[in-house]
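Design a sequence for this backbone.
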């Protein structure tokens, strides 16, 4: 029964431990900065979405999908995966270098998006202060192969340990470039339009309201947490202390978010999953 189903992971998983962290909002942005450095992946996004016109809607849809795979029932997670695979199957793009038309659901592209996402989640959580052993980090990557299968990847071909992720990055780095599209995307990610409701100070005539300052701080932290090789591709953004400053910043932000009542920082899918887990534990 769905009422007794804890989904792909459950309360004893490393995945639930990591995704308990509200600081993963920084991780999500970090993964987008990384993904933009893959010209073919970037072309697939740019040619098949209106992310500039609907940036916040896209963010909400992505966050909902991730939350469904983490906290939804098995049936909900599998249904979300089917919908995503059907959407990707219809999409084509043109390679910016060769002019070749390609499918956006090519395994190499899906793998790139998956690895940058999960590596950003676990590394950001750890650097923000979440206590994770090396074995738990490896366990997270292994568990996340289940999420990779939802998008159509063969789990056996997806990195399942920290060492395998590092090896994957070394192998893919020759394909990465700082293209015009990557630069434009990075600029957009750093200073996107703020929704009207969040930008009230600007509507009242102030030049830069608190929401934009707050977002710029999150974007700066996300950039600072990028691997050194990614920062070099972005032209060496920041000072030599960027990584240290970003780490101090996300630790402070994590402490601040921990003070927010759970009912405000946990989404409905997470709350429902915890309620199912509590019912099972009580039974």
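Sequence:
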């Amino acid at each position: 029964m769905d009422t007794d189903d804890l989904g792909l992971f459950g309360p004893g998983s490393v995945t639930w431990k990591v995704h308990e962290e509200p600081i993963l909002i920084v991780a999500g942005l970090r993964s987008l900065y990384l993904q933009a450095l893959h010209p073919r992946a970037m072309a697939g996004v740019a040619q098949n979405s209106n992310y500039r016109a609907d940036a916040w809607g896209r963010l909400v849809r992505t966050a909902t999908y991730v939350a469904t795979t983490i906290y939804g029932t098995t049936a909900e997670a599998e249904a979300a995966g089917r919908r995503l695979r059907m959407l990707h199957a219809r999409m084509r793009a043109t390679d910016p270098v060769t002019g070749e038309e390609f499918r956006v659901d090519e395994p190499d592209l899906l793998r790139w998006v998956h690895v940058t996402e999960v590596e950003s989640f676990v590394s950001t959580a750890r650097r923000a202060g979440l206590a994770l052993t090396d074995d738990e980090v490896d366990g997270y990557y292994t568990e996340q192969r289940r999420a990779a299968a939802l998008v159509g990847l063969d789990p056996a071909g997806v990195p399942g340990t920290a060492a395998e992720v590092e090896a994957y990055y070394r192998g893919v780095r020759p394909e990465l470039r700082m293209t015009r599209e990557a630069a434009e995307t990075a600029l957009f990610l750093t200073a996107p339009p703020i929704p009207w409701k969040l930008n009230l100070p600007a509507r009242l005539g102030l030049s830069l309201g608190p929401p934009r300052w707050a977002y710029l701080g999150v974007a700066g932290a996300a950039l600072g947490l990028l691997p050194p090789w990614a920062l070099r591709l972005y032209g060496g953004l920041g000072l030599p202390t960027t990584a240290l400053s970003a780490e101090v910043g996300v630790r402070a932000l994590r402490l601040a978010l921990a003070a927010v009542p759970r009912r405000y920082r946990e989404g409905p899918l997470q709350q429902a999953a915890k309620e199912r887990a509590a019912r099972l534990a009580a039974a």
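Residues 36 and 42 are 5 Å apart (CA to CA).
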